[in-house]
Each structure stands twice: as structure tokens, then as C-alpha cells.
Amino acid sequence: MTLASPLPLHTPADTKRVSALTYAVASAMRRHNAPSLGAVDQAWLEGRPQTLLSLLDTTVAASAAEPRDEELVAACLWLLANQLELIRYKLERDYDWASVVLDAYQENLIVLARAQTLRSEDWFALVNLLNVAKVPIRPEMSEALAKAALDATPPGEALSPQGIPAEVSRAVDELGRSAKDPFRVVEELADIGMLMPVELRAFITHELGLPSHAVLREAVPLLLLDPEPVVRRSAAAVLEQIASPQTFSPVMLRRALLLRNWIPEEERAAIDRLVRKARVKGVECAQWAPASALSIQCTIVDGSGAQSVVLTTPTGRIGLFAGLLLKQGFGVRDAWCDLSVPRREITRSLKEARCEMAWRMTGRDHLNTVVQHHIARGLALGNLPQLQLLEIAEAIGAADWKDRSLDMTAETEQLLAGSCAAATSPAQIALSLRRSGEWIDRDPMVQSWFEDGAAVRALVDKRPRLKPDVALRRVLEEVLPARRDAWAERLVLLALWLRDSTEDALPAELSQDCLVLARELRAGRPPAELPAMVAIAERSVFVARVHAQ
Q1: pLDDT tens digit string along 31-41?
Q2: d(CA 52, CA 352)
């Protein structure tokens, strides 16, 4: 399989090392029942994104081998999912090659389907990795993959009398008989319907509300968070149709009420109608469980605008272990929730995480503020929260999470007004700006604070190559002014993180300095006059030059 991109092609040496890695991961799975990869190997994979296609070749070979080594196949799929996710991160930072590599992966899937060299379940597993890694699929690529899936379907499996593929109809019926949890139903439906036309998915959504399987009906409110508007509208329509005590449970009503505030404004009237009908018909709303004790740990906002939150129950042999990835420019990027994790696993995972990033304990007020802010920012960009956010909200009693975006200007002034000694005079402001510049330049906690977008890379890659001082000046004059609001938001989120930390306090002036810098940025002060932005620009040029080598 080949790759047309600015990246080097994957070499025989890459293929050999990839093969060795898959066997190492398979061996770890046999010993510990869990995949793992050493830091050196992980770094090598990150530095060789073109090995995605070597991994795909290796996975295909392992899947088709006789006898088949299931651990080896599982190891290949795990590595593929990891590599797809790493490349998706680069795609989000506007690396042109990332789109080329991900398209090449999908094009090779189409070739595999046409050649029919794999069992259909193995091919669908490779396709589903795109869903696992949250890789966006272009509409034309989705259409091509769907056609490839149809071509690979045996002739007798085409359509049921209702127009649903027979295999899908059987899978949905099996879900109704075996599933106990509506959240798992939706996850399984996402896997089944990934390559379906959206109109067919909407039809299936409507049908879920009608059968005798209660768990399928319970899943319909969760589809109000589906990425596709037509599926969400279908879910709202069938819920209104079945809104009576016999078919619409109190939990379904509670979930519909919460999710109303997580979907676009223009879709909320349909939720209001079904809620009114349910109440008129006598459906009672399920009560929320009392908020339990909660340990909340939160990272600093990194240079990509990402902030991770981990939630655990502080006592007991087993407990809640949940997490969120909040992302500037996206919203709630990821969420996961497990209600019963052994305490030793929670402790080990938290210890490992703290070795990699700056974490601090925060409280519920901070959690509520940042989650609701990112729900709102995500909605403004057309990105609905993941379904697992609902699981988390129900687990911790977050009954009031809505789309509440922070007004960054007002928040900055409010936080500054509450500080002990707000910088107001020109001399105080200059001192504060100098301190923030020194901190951002030297503190390892913010070493990821730099620009890594296409604009910086274009300057660094320019031929003839710009002198360092010229590149720095152009980043300050051409790149950072367009990013001032993003950096101001990042600084306010950092100030909130510092204010609400329940651990030992960092220097008292640090939060104030962040807010002063945010205020100056939003006021339009040139980045070249702000020592912190000069430090960010210098680091941006340095990192871009390193990556260009």
C-alpha cells in the first residue's frame, strides 16, 4: 500500500519494527490481559505517522493468517487505533499531511473491501477504528466506504422487508434481547450504523421507540446527542409519539430535560413539546441521586487549549473513575465513565497521570464552570457533547449542567476585582506583565504553550529561510494577533484553575498576572509589547524549526 504525501514513505525497516511492536504488545496481552507499549516505542510511533499503513498491512496479514492468533490481531487493532488517534491530533493542528495519511487509510479500506481478502467482520473492525479514534470522515469518503460495505455484503443479506439491511435488523433485535444498559445500546448502534446513509439511521432511530424491548426505547433519548441533526429530529419525534407512562419512563423524561440544554437552540422546541405531552399524560420525572463525595483533579490548560479532568469517588474498594477532555475551539472533546473500578487501578492511573502533566485538585464550582463553558462553546461550533458526559452527570448528580459560556471580558474584570492587589497603575501593569513573561518563559508547567498551527509552519518553512529574529517578528505581527482571543481565554481558564485549586497555593500574584495579560490582549495591545507573548512566539519558532528538520 502506498502513500502520496510530504511525509517519507514507510520503509521495509519501518515494517519490520512495526511487526516487532505488534508481537511485543500481543505478548503483554497474554501476560497481563492488557495491551501496553513502552515510552521509547510510543515516541517512535509518534515520530513515524506514515507507519499507519505498515500497521494496516500487518493487521490484514494477521487477520487472514491460518492459524489465526487472536492476541496478535487484537494487538494490531490496538496499535492502529492509537496511531489513528495520534494522527487525528495532528489533523486538529492543521498538519496537511495528516489529512493525506487518514485519507490513504480509508482508500486502502475501500480496496480491501473490493478485493474481499478479509472476513467482513475484520473489515468492519478496521472501519470502526475510525470511530474509536474519532477521525472525521469526509462525506465523499463515507459514501465510498458505504458502497464498499454494500459490495462486500453477501447477496442474501441485502434488505429486510422494512428496508433495513437484514444483518442490521438481526443485530438490533439481538441488542434488545441481550442489552441491559441503553448507553451500551447506543455504542453498539454507532458501530453498526457507521456506514449507513443518515436517512436509514434516522429510520432505525424511529423504530427503536416502537418495539417491545424497553432497553431500546430507553436508548432513544440518548440519540438526542447524535452528531447528525436528522437523527436527533427523528429521536425527538418518536419520543413525542410514545410520551405516555406505558412507554416513556421517568428516567427518559429526566434525560430529555437535561439534554435539551446540550443541543442546538433551534431543536429545543421539539423537546419542549414532548416534555409537555409526557407531563400531561402523567409521566413523573425521575429524581436525581444526591451528589456524592467527589475527588476532582484537573490539568493546566495546555498549548493546544486542552484541559483534562478526572473524577473519582474518594473511598471504597471500587469506585467511580471518569474523565473529560475539554478543548478550546471544540468544546467537550472526549468523555469516559466507569462506575466500578477497583481502587488500586484508580490509584495507579492517577499516579501515572501526575507524572506526565501538571494536575491540581479543584472543586465542584470549578468543574461546573468549565464543563458548562465548553458545552456552550462546542454548541456554537456545531459540536455536541459526547454521550458519556450524560453518564458522568448522572453519576455525580450534576443536574444543572447547561450551555453557559463565560463572558471572558466580564470574567477577567470580576476576577481582577476580587484579587488582593489588582494591578491598576502603569507601573503595576508593567511589573505584572514582566512577571508573566518570566513565568511562561521558564516554568515547565507551561512548556507546551506555543503556536503549532499552519501559519507558523509556513513562516518557518519559507524559502529562502527566514532569519530567527525575522521569523519571530512575523509570528508576533502576523500570527499572534489573530489568536489573541484564544490566548486570553486560555489565561482566564488558567486563572480559574489557580483560584479554585484546593492544594497548596502557587505564588499569589500568578493568577493576577494571568488576568492582567488577558486584559491587555483583549484590549488590543500588540503582542510584541507583552513579554509572555514574545516568549510564546520564540518557543513557537523553535518548535517549528525542530519539526521541520
Answers
A1: 888 888 888 88
A2: 27
